[in-house]
Amino acid sequence: MRAMRAMRAFALWLCLVGLAAALFSGCGKEKTEEVHQAETTVVDAVGRSVVLPHPVTRAAVANRYNMEVIQSIGALDRVCGVDYGIYQDRDAYGGFSEDQVIGTNQGALNYERIIELHPEVLILPGNGAWEDAESKLSPFGIKVVVMNPYYTDKFEELYRLAGAIFGKETEADDFIRYFKEKLDYVQTQLANVPRKTVYYEYKKPGWTTVPGDYFYKMVEFAGGDNIFSDAVNTHVDLEAVVERNPDAIIKVGEEGEAPRWQALGAAEMTARKQRLIARPGWDHIKAVQNDKILIMSQYVQGGAAKIIGTLYIAKFLYPEQLPDLYPEDVFKYWVEHYQHKEYQPGHTLPAFPLSGE
Question: Helix and strand tally (H, E) in the chain?
Fold first, then answer.
């Protein structure tokens, strides 16, 4: 009897040990899953796979267009450090102190300050010093992610990347859906429409866009036939513009001007147009003769990875084919809903009406 009782006790003990082991094993599994769920792997704009905390709660950011993306998905409160250009634009991104400035720009970073701010990630564009940043920051556990906010044809990838970084996937999806609908409408309506030739100029006289450049796809998506699509240099002779005789001219910004959300006003936009058409020989260009000149501020053309600029150019070139497109409505919605600023008309000449006006 004693032997039988002893055997039963031993069997009970074995069961208890097994149960405990199973419980501890289960807890360990749950803990592992929790750790896994707290991280995510993103593929950045240059194809690097980067493991990040999910979501990122502290980010240092270089480049104001990257800040526009971050603000568009409601993650501005996750930014703990900015470059000087962002810091200086207090009207757009007020609230950052000098102690939070991480460098002059994406190519001139203050790594000591970045380390002091303890970000989980540094976000900068592809034309920034990301390789140098990675080598200097990785020993401190600070990840580097490249986000390129420049290319219209990459806007979905851009916003999905930002959404994944900050755990704002839903907000990114909503943004993509809104703007993709507008782009799809333009592409559908212009599918069989003969293309108008366009000269695009950015800030300085003779500075244009060529294949691979930041602005090239914007003009292409708007249905424009770029007169310098065969060029490799973004700087061209002004005489060449006369020789190629475009149907339309798009002029964006002025030399030395920084993008600002405040409207420049009709007087300044008119002065810019007058300086352009007064260039020697330009009175022989079809676009000048037919008054097919669009003047845009940097801010309006660069909005939403240049999609807003694309919509203005498309409507300017093909108003009859795009009756349901109101780029001023899109700009107003973007400024108020995504950038949380006051809408100001006057970023283009000619002015575009809001729907219902």
Answer: 14, 13
Q: How confident is the model at residue 34 (pLDDT cuts 50, 70, 90)?
A: very low
Please, what sign has the CA dihedral across residues 327, 332, 335, 336? negative
Across residues 100-111, what is the average pLDDT? Answer: 95
Q: What per-residue confidence (pLDDT) applies to 343?
A: 93
One DSSP character per residue, 52-117 reads EESS---EEE-SHHHHHHHHHTT-GGGEEEE-HHHHH-HHHHTT--GGGB-EEETTEE-HHHHHHH
Contacts of 31 (CB under 8 A, 6+ apart): none
* SS3 call for 244: helix
Calculate the average pLDDT of the chain. 89
Cα torsion at 248, 249, 252, 255 (round to 10°)? 180
pTM: 0.86
Strands 103-105 and 79-82, bridge-based pairing:
unpaired
SS3 215: coil
